[in-house]
Amino acid sequence: MMTAPRKLDHCVLAVPSLEEARGWFEALGFVVAPDAQHPFGTENACVFLADGSYIEPLAVGHRETCEAEARAGNAFITRDQAHRFRIGTPSFSCVAFASPDADADRDDMREAGFGGGESLAFERRFRTPDGQDGLVGFKLAFARDLRAPDVAFFTCQPTHVHKPDRSALTRHANGALGTARLVMAEPNPTDFQYYLQHLTGDREIEADSFGMTLRMGRSILEVATPEALAIRYGAARDERRGLSFEGIVLAVRDFEAVRSFAPQAEERHGRLIVRLGAGAFVGFEKESA
């Protein structure tokens, strides 16, 4: 059973605080959206990209609310808390796919054996760069493979009537245009072939001894062996089993602007790699023609 192809909506970066995350991304030449609070205790300050995808730095804003939501079975919060406990911060924790119908996705995941609990619907306030306030809403449907506890996948359906204008937030001084690839690691990537194929809807994966890649719309999901991860991105991963979400690579037209903000970036295999703390990385590669 295969689903229709899904495209990347956003990825979640678990961070110790929004203040620290804002400092990292602004220093790298990104425009960062104003802080926003979720009704279940977390908060974000997103980095929106011109291709419609975005990075969501996520922090715990009100611990007591998060703990109460976790006890009540909030799947988003329970996964975030587990990830912070097991992996720490900063680290990429979740991948969200765009969806027109989260309830249908929930049923589809259950039928495929990857059900991750009930859908979660919520609204939150947002503020535009010019100070205008608005309301956005979302419904999430979760997937789960117990062999991969350290990265969560869900679909994200916008439920607001009017889409907010984020164009001013997508003009980054470093030239970032969109998400080229998400980079994960696992000693035997093809063990997760069916799970990831069902999530992405990609019927034609590319696989070799160094890993496999799947399409998510215009973006790529790359699952590399630890050896390939070290060679391509200079990132360390041991031989423990299960998917880990190591980093994100963004498309740019050239490297000149990136280098002006990140002179410490390491060049590997035609990409520039910047570390966020001791673990996660943000990379840049030239936009494909």
UniProtKB/TrEMBL annotation:
SUPFAM superfamilies linked to this entry: Glyoxalase/Bleomycin resistance protein/Dihydroxybiphenyl dioxygenase
Positions of the VOC domain: 7-159
InterPro entries per record: Glyas_Bleomycin-R_OHBP_Dase, Glyoxalase-like_dom, VOC_core
Signal peptide as annotated in the record: none
Pfam assignment, any one: Glyoxalase_3
Name listed for the protein in its UniProt record: VOC family protein
